[in-house]
Amino acid sequence: MSVLVLLLAGPLQSWGSSARFARRTTGQAPSKSGVLGLLAAAQGRDRTADPSDLAQLRFGVRVDQRGTRIRDYQTAHRPDTGEAMPVSERFYLADAVFVAGAEGDDDLIGELDRALREPAYLPYLGRRSCPPSRPVALGLRRETTLEAVLRREEWHAAEWYQRRHRNEPEVTLDCFLDAAEGDREVDSVRDLPLSFDPSHRRYALRGVTRRGVAVPNPKADPPDHDPMSALEGD
Question: Within 13 Å of residue 65, how many CA atoms lie on the same side as its CB?
Fold first, then answer.
C-alpha cells in the first residue's frame, strides 16, 4: 500500500459541508468528497464518471494551521427584469493549512500522483475561487500507513504561525481519519461520493474518528537552561 500526500494551503478555502438555499457553509477541515473531486479533476475525469475506486481510498487530513472562519455575501439581479435576488451567504477558512493523505493500491496512488503534477484541470480548494498558494503534491510514501504518514510529516504551518507557538517544542495537531474497525467515538458524516454528476450528486455516510499527533516545532526557542550559571560567583 502507498499513501499520496497533499498540501492544501491558500488565502481562502471552503469545504462544503452543507448548502441549503442561499447559505453555503464550510467544514473545519477538507472533506473527503472535496479532495477526491480535486483528484478526479486532476485526472481529467468527467463529472459523470464512476468515482467508486477513489471512494475506496482511506482518507485522512491533519490540521496544520486552523485559519479563521469568515463570511462573505453575494448579491445578484435577474438579467431580464433587474429584480434583486436573495442575498447569499458563503463561508470560508482564511489562512488555513492542511496535510491530507489517501492510502490505497500502489498503481492507483501512482496514477493520482502523476495527475497532480500535470493536472488536466487546475486544482482548487473546495471552490473555484480558492486557488492553492503552494504546490499541492507532496509526493508518495510507499510501504507505510496513513496514520504513520500524518504522524511523521513535518509541520507545514506558515513560519509566522510556528513562531507564534515558539514556547512549544512540540505541538499537537488534530487529525480526522476514516474510521477503522474497533475505533471508538466515531462520527458519521455524509461525505462519501457516489456520484459527482451535477444533475444528481449523491453521497453516502462515512465514519470519521479524531486523533491528535505531536510534531516538532522548527521555530521553537531553545530551552532557557544554563547549568554553568550556578558555578558563577558574585
Answer: 27
